[in-house]
Amino acid sequence: MKLSLFVCLFITTILAAQTKNITLEEIWKDGTFRTERMDALHSMDNGQQYSVLNFDRASRSTSIDIYDYKTLKKVKTLVSSADLEAIPYFTDYTFSEDEQQVILATNEKAIYRRSALGNYFVYNVKSGDLDLISEDKIQEPTFSPDGKKVAFAKDNNLYMKDLSSGEITQITSDGEKNKIINGITDWVYEEEFSFVRAFDWNADSNKIAFIRFDETNVPEFSMDVYGSELYQTQQVFKYPKAGEANSLVTLHLYDLNSGKTHEVKVDKAYEDFYIPRIKWTKNPDILSAQYMNRHQNELDLWMINAKTNSSSLVLAEKDKAYIDVTDNLTFLKDNSFIWTSEKDGYNHIYHYDKKGNLINQVTKGNWEVTDYYGYDDKTNTIFYQSVENGSINRDVYSIKLNGRNKNRLTKSEGTNNAAFSADFSFFINTFSSATTPPEYTLNSAASGNLIKSIKDNDKLAQKLSEFKTSKKTFSTINVNGNDLNMWMIKPANFDASKTYPLFMYQYSGPGSQQVANSWNSANDYWYQHLAQQGYIIACIDGRGTGLKGADFKKVTQNELGKYEVEDQIAAAKQLGELPYVDAARIGIWGWSYGGFMSSNCLFKGNDVFKMAIAVAPVSSWRFYDTIYTERYMTTPQENPSGYDENSPINHVDKLKGDFLLVHGSGDDNVHLQNTMRLAEALIQADKQFDWAIYPDKNHGIYGGNTRLHLYKKMTNFIHETLGDKIQEEKETKVNQINIKG
């Protein structure tokens, strides 16, 4: 009798627990749904061990810990900040090539999205000695391959430190804020070409190649920084908007033996161009450099001989729209190279000889290679990730260099991402899906077979089981002749005989993907919260998004915001025809490009969408940077109609529904100017709207209580414009009219 009572109480408790609702505080303040991760994972050169950056909450210290692949047991702590008086903590680390020294990063402060200034120390693994690289804060300290020197940037100049003598050599001296930058990218290169360190050591550690940026003629942009002082300050930086002057870039070589620097010139006259990548080959005298025209539809790969100061063009790609810069250039021992390209209509792997003659196309098919992990020269095997198993999934594969013996190494359907050991004998796989939080496993690189589980998020899964959640379902929707990927979340107590408001999310930018079979982002918990409040949430990847081939992605060329908006409006209409969707209560939201889209959808689709939220939106592509905008639109001078006909700022007169406009005043990426100009256009068109400006917040709009405040504001706006109370008020008014009648 007692046992039965216990079982009943247990079952009652479980059932009660499964009815808990997710709160905004749990998502944005308490960290209730935080996932366990493996931070700064690095495979040791022996291929049998790996290192991880760990944080000890009790001592508030960080450590680099070494683990054995086979046993997964900790072998040793390489270094801990608890044992270092000069460093209370470090946030990142980089090994020298022989792994006998480590650069430890501390006091890092972000400059822009990828760049940071910090204090950096060299830790000697054998002696335990600690050496501060520079008393000043510096950028991008990088070991020479022989581990005897470190190159770094400071105050827009390039420096080198001899680690045995402590002597610092200043390589350049003309660096000046907002004028000349040596070895570090300017704002637009960092943001759009996704790199900061614009210098590279050769294999013999006796030459450094670097890019010099002359920003003198690039227009300046300024942002007020309000802070907490009596008077605000200003952040002034060079930002080339579409059609305006870019930095003049030049390539240089510094010779350590002679102490001299000279400019590299290739055998082709370029008028307005980019150098998006430089990389030394296996030959210490041969540097590779990628040059790209301003329209970004021509990409040249040059091999530069540092001894003879000569150059040869080994690869030239052209595209009717644009070419994506690849990070996958890999040189083999004979200086032949691996390259990825979508020249056959899908992104695939190619093998060229050192003169640029095609040896073979390694992968083929109507699917995309989404990541390249490396090449094992012992077995002539390439390891990569692709969407061959469906465009919303990711799997890890191996294939021979000759394109034969392809092997799918991961078995679970969802998103798989690999980190291989240095000798390619193992890989740590990170797997997640819409129903499985991230789990880390050790797998055989030869077969893909599971060896051991390393870390999972079972505690998170168990915690989530206490909450009332809904399944994210994947499907396709046929819109404008295309089967578009879609996910949908319905209320847990969904009743097909009732009607629900529909809230749509999208990003829609070129090559992007939001419909993916992977674990929840923070927004997914918000969507679960909204589903608990009685909303259906849906997301559709329309034309222009990625991983379905170049034609699908590049259809939006020269007309950003045309086909993407047409697809979202058509999808909303189609979903509105479902018997359980209230077609009169459909809303849409997005951030950045997604905010540009949600604004356009509300204005142009005013008979479909009742409301929209736009966070940090581009309101006119004339306000955005050269590299991103011109890649898809050419310049405003060449394509004025493409810029103006699809920009929200020119369609404010069409606004009928409810509109919430949000921006951070410290957004260095999509400037507050976009929202201010859009707001002014709405005001002059006599259109009412709601808006919020977050002081000094950048494009991410976070810090302290900011995210919670933002999502509370958006949630309240959704309730006010789409919620059941609105519907109830309408029904009440109708009933009152009927009674009076």
What is the alpha-carbon Rg in Å? 28 Å
Strand tally: 43
> What is the terminal-to-terminal distance?
64 Å
Proportion of β residues? 35-45%
**Helix count from the secondary structure assignment:** 13
Quote the average pLDDT: 94
Percent helix:
10-25%
Lateral arrangement of strands in the main beta sheet: 36-37-39-38-40-41-42-43
Spans of at least 5 consecutive residues whose pLDDT stays below 50 are 1-16
Please explain how this structure is put together.
The protein has 741 residues and is an alpha+beta fold. It has 13 helices and 43 strands. It starts with a helix and ends with a helix. The radius of gyration is 28 Å and the shape is globular. The strands form ten sheets. It has an eight-stranded mixed sheet with strand order 36-37-39-38-40-41-42-43, sandwiched between helices. Strands 13, 14, 15, 18 and 19 form a five-stranded antiparallel sheet that branches. A four-stranded antiparallel sheet has the order 1-2-3-4, with no helix packed on it.
Concise synopsis of the structure shown:
This protein is an alpha+beta fold and 741 residues long. The protein is 18% helix and 35% strand. Helix 7 packs across helix 8 and helix 12 (706-722) packs parallel to helix 13.
